[in-house]
């Protein structure tokens, strides 16, 4: 499982404060826990509104963990460290 | 003072409305839902909220060329399509034509974790995208309350929903938002706070084991609307709100008169029939030829070349045709030529509303000039008292407004006939009330017909006996005996008696004639005798008279001669006195 590359998508709508915070937070976590094992895609729905339907995006910002399955979603600006790790199921993976 | 005119309210332009195309709803809302504004449709499970939404969209697309977006929070596009296929709505086709867009919003709490601040911009973007791609004018959000199960931060949710409605308004799309009914509130999450333009409440209740669905417009800002609860049903063609009782009594009336199909019965009315477009009630106990009367009416209408719609709740069409053929009412040819349509169904098949809607729909399709319902009393078995009465009011009203000749039959039991019908409140609705009944005499039953009321027309007050023969219905002349009118066998007996009396009277008259003749002859003879007698008396008298005259004359002569002698030569008289 740890061999898998994580695929993460962050849906934002323009350069809002919440989106920027979320992105910054996400990058911190990834560097810390998934270094080299993740691919992050940032989708701006203002530019690609048609993509919102596919991942059932309602809230902004939304972080979607596409791989590994199952799909997990974390919404909000990702400011709560604990909850993000639980949400993404990162904790079990990385005991540190 | 009272003559002073009321202050005039200057008419303002009406709130722009989007017609729903849903049967009856546009009438109640006085033209449709508020254009470009959100409307809340709330109701408990199984009310047809989603259906109302979908129909609003589909009709919008098909009838008014307004593309629509359906944002479904509960069901997928495939499920929705399958659900409404039976109603003849082909959603996939509409989607392919780019007239409709279905966006299924899947919310699973288990998949989502919340950390920190967020908003629902994603929903806005999806909706905005869907609206813009097809140029939608109508939007349905079904059921937006599902959001509350997906997100825990209610404060955010509420402010976002408020923003969403504001945003939809700004977009100028006519929106229908469905919501589940809550305890003591219109919606579970109090959505009515956010949607203030129009709120429609759907209700599904079971009374006496019969489900009736009711629709009520709770509010409609800036517009008049019907305030009652209106029954509605889900038919094969979609939702159908019961066409409303018109709020005003202002249907036009006709001065024309139509025949009842029974000439003798026509003659009981001063004008020789029923007014065109009036409603007639035929009441009677079992087996008093109500259906036959109704069929005569139908046949007459067909003969005039009018379309006639015949609802039967007791017989199958074939049975009706056969039975009526035996009494000389040949309906078959008119069924074949399409002038007569017979709709048969069991009253218990449907709830009252459904019956009414069916009747409405068929009338709408067939456009008859004459409608017969035989019998309306059977409908009573499927509804409570007040319901039946309100349904009939609607029905009668509807027919009157359409100017359709209506004839209803009603089965009543025994003596309380008038009471019953008055109780149902039908009697005050109909213009003409004909009552047929048994006239029970010694060992037999006969049928009597009378007119209880006929608005705007003088009518006979007699109870006429009538018979149903192979030539149809024939009214018999009134025979009044010592104890009232005479019918049946008594009528025959009376007839024979009368004949005997007539013969006796004739003989008596002849005898008297002969008597008279005899007397005349006797008298004439007597007169002749008397005349002869008179002549002889006259003769006698004449003779006496002439003798008298002669005597008188000779005496006068003598006296004259005597006088002459004395005056000239009295002494020289030769034949003197001897002096």
Automatic annotation (TrEMBL), chain A:
Cross-referenced CDD domains: KaiB_like
Superkingdom field: Bacteria
Coiled coil: none
GO biological process, one term: rhythmic process
One Pfam assignment: KaiB
Ranges that cross the membrane: none
Domain KaiB: 9-90
InterPro entries: KaiB-like, KaiB_domain, Thioredoxin-like_sf
Protein name in UniProt: Circadian clock protein KaiB
Native source species: Hymenobacter lapidiphilus
Automatic annotation (TrEMBL), chain B:
Keyword Hydrolase assigned: yes
Biased composition (Basic and acidic residues): 539-561
Gene3D superfamilies from the UniProt entry: P-loop containing nucleotide triphosphate hydrolases
E.C. number: 2.7.11.1
Superkingdom as given in the UniProt entry: Bacteria
Residues in KaiC domain copies: 16-255, 256-489
Keywords for this protein: Hydrolase, Kinase, Phosphoprotein, Repeat, Transferase
UniProt key word GTP-binding: no
Region (Disordered): 538-579
GO MF terms, alphabetically ordered: ATP binding; hydrolase activity; protein serine/threonine kinase activity
NCBIfam families linked to this entry: PRK09302.1
PANTHER family: CIRCADIAN CLOCK OSCILLATOR PROTEIN KAIC 1, PTHR42926
The protein, known as: non-specific serine/threonine protein kinase
Natural source organism: Hymenobacter lapidiphilus
